[in-house]
Amino acid sequence: MATEDIPEAHTYVFALYAYDGDQPGDLSFKSGDLLEVDELPTASESWFQATNPRTGCTGMIPANYVTAERGYSAALDAFNRVSRKSAEALLESSSYKESFNYMIRPSTDNRALALSVRTPSEKVVHLKIFFNPRQHNCFIYREKPFDTIEDLLIYYMENAIPEVCTLQAYKPFRKFPN
């Protein structure tokens, strides 16, 4: 797939639990946040550096509070490191139609992520998920902010994105580990 218009590589992890950093250099986050990391930790690393796009902050996070494993998150499972054009092709493919009608991907605007959605008429619409570090939230429409990307996706699974459609994931998600 083409990567010519994709910003530099980052990996995302999903926050299984909330963490309130209590040491200088710790990164606080909410359960459901997607956190950006340069690389995943090794098995021997219990802490690693991440950035929370929702807050704009960077710091150390406990490895056991997050996962890169697919199956827990509507956001992480739908994340693909592809260009706009490749997103359209993937959303129109028969294999992807069995899983999701949407995809989260990097945006050419490094302050946002892109949400590509296949509508019932089979047209692919591209929206931006913006982050407001001052308010610690994210949104597609400024008047409807959400605490996390996961909250945003779940809301739009239950309520249509104006003039687009509802988001659909055609598979069950795993329960968070205790």
From TrEMBL:
* SMART domains noted in UniProt: SH2, SH3
Where do the SH2 domain residues begin and end? 71-173
The question of whether Manganese is a record keyword is answered with no
What Pfam families would the database entry show? SH2, SH3_9
| Ranges for domain SH3 | 8-71
Q: Which SUPFAM superfamilies match?
A: SH2 domain, SH3-domain
Q: Which PROSITE patterns match?
A: SH2 (PS50001), SH3 (PS50002)
Which key words tag this protein in UniProt? SH2 domain, SH3 domain
Does the keyword field hold ATP-binding?
A: no
Question: PANTHER family from the xrefs?
Answer: PROTEIN ENHANCER OF SEVENLESS 2B (PTHR46037)
Name listed for the protein in its UniProt record: SH2 domain-containing protein
What is the native source organism of this protein? Hymenolepis diminuta
